Amino acid sequence: MTVKSTNITRTEHRIDREVRWRESGHRGGVLWFTGLSGSGKTTLAFELERRLFEKNYRVYVLDGDNVRHGLNSDLGFSPQDREENIRRIGEVAALFADAGIIVISAFISPYRRDRDQARQAAPGMFHEIHMSANLDICEARDPKGLYKKARHGDIADFTGISAPYESPETPELVLDTGGLTIEESLGRLMDYVLHNFRTD
Amino acid sequence: MTVKSTNITRTEHRIDREVRWRESGHRGGVLWFTGLSGSGKTTLAFELERRLFEKNYRVYVLDGDNVRHGLNSDLGFSPQDREENIRRIGEVAALFADAGIIVISAFISPYRRDRDQARQAAPGMFHEIHMSANLDICEARDPKGLYKKARHGDIADFTGISAPYESPETPELVLDTGGLTIEESLGRLMDYVLHNFRTD
pTM of the prediction? Predict the structure, then answer.
């Protein structure tokens, strides 16, 4: 029994991040997409994921679909719940980054304070990427018909219409997704990742 | 603009799990360790992680250290908070499994209902592994001195002393970590993973 206990103390430590990075050929980190509904976050997230995956990157997208129905299914849309929603996403993203994965988070995340909290959860591994298409363009696109509903008053506290969006002040990358084509935005995202995440 | 919107709809889908598995050479899934404090969960989790990593598996440990201080830092030790603690861990583990990773969860998780909920979060990818060392053995080991404190009444609701542990009824694997050496337990865990997670 004594020998076993000795073993227990000796072996309890994690794999170093640098060792993980060497193995996978790239760093882990958080690509935190932020921008209005319709600014291209989800489209770009999934297409970036696909392209990185094809280049053998370890990559995963967190979005409303896999977070709101599971981890955050207990949260509604009150101010406190929205804040907690983003807090948890930031913490989960930090765990993925720690595991050596490039995690792409695709949420409006309209408040600076919440995004800063997410940054603090993943020190040195957080990359804030602002999809800066303006309201007029996003509302004209309205891919899910949400702006129309918000204008009719069917959605309360809708970012850009009846709730504020606080633009990032010093994001790592800004993509004017109102002016750039999807292909151009993807090119810049790929360049950014190749430049910032490669370890070789 | 119309063309961009068309693109948006076309490209929004995830990478299939099977495609991820082919790429990494193994399935993703949850190895849910459960057992009393001192039953060997953390020791075995980190040593299993190391051995799988050395065989090029994508593997990550969730434990109190990386979950309680981040994602679940808002939770205390009330019955509701303990339940929510395990619920969130189950959901995060499911996200990791979906990302193609073998995630090892090392928490006492004493209640059947909570573990069953975690199982439901990762359908077909959940492996409940019972570290079945009994109370006498765990208390004699007492690697962190917690049983001593609990016996002195310094820790309330301590599993095995002043709160129940509900053994799994149909776990995928039972390791009698009271009788087996660490090396023997690790051998069985490695066999289990090689048998259940390889895709080639």
Answer: 0.93
